[in-house]
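Please predict the structure of the following assembly.
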Amino acid sequence: ERKCQLNGLWRNDQGSLMEISALRDNGDFEGQYLTRVTLSGGCAQISPLKGAQQQLGEEGWSTFAFTVRWDKFSNATTAFVGQCFVDAGGKETLTTMWLLREAVGSLEEDWKVSSLEENWGAFRDTPSL
Ligand code: BTN
């Protein structure tokens, strides 16, 4: 059983790209995210992400969480939680769930974003990129 390395370049089901570049000993990590889809349908820009990976015990794969700052083009915030898996061939997959919080203009409009949804997405290695 090999340890999961979050470092590297990942692509998810939507075709978004994520690079995790700085993984510290304490589990904190940083990177950048380029989403292929946006709420507005407009162009995205590379956005910084920050997260934390739980320190591994002897057993099981590590879980992690991160947030992405879209603030170069959007007021929204996304929080991801996930887990890293390694298959027998050494291929890593990150399975995630996320919540996307849109910004509204007033408290009266808060109901518009209060619907609860479960959102799933998997990231895979992109060794070819
Ligand atoms: C925005 O459009 O206001 C911010 C970008 C949101 C992109 C979302 S985050 C969850 C999902 N996974 C992706 O890779 N992109 C979308």
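The chain has a mean pLDDT of 88. The CA atoms of residues 21 and 31 lie 5 Å apart.
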